[in-house]
Structure formats: structure tokens, C-alpha cells
Known about the structure:
By secondary structure, the chain is mainly alpha-helical. It has helices at about 5-25, 30-50, 55-60. α1 packs antiparallel against α2. The termini are close together. The model has no long low-confidence stretch (mean pLDDT about 90).
Amino acid sequence: MKKNVGKTDKIIRTVLAIAVICIAHFMVEESPWNYILYAFGTILILTSIFSYCPAYPLLGMDTCKTKE
């Protein structure tokens, strides 16, 4: 699996994931949106950890500057 997520992209994904998970956690009412936000935050964290976004090859994008 070729890395396609760069350092800046990883930082943005991590910060956004933390914000989304906090919003989901502190929502007043229990709703389906909580689970959707948890899933979205988890996906962002995982793509940041593994430096691979499955949507990028479909869109022809690559933010990683290093070549394997």
C-alpha cells in the first residue's frame, strides 16, 4: 500500500478528527448523528495513522511528497 497522505494532511485530519469526536461526545441528545460523527472521526484517525486514503487514488490525488 503506497502512502498518499502527506504530513500537513495528516495534521489537518487528526485535528479535524478530534474536533468531530468531541462534538459527537458532547451532543446533548442521543441521535444517529452521534454514530455518524464517531465513524467519520474514526476514519479520519485511521487514514492519518496509516498515511493512506482510499479515496485519493480514485480522485487522482497524492499529498505525500516522499516516494516509496
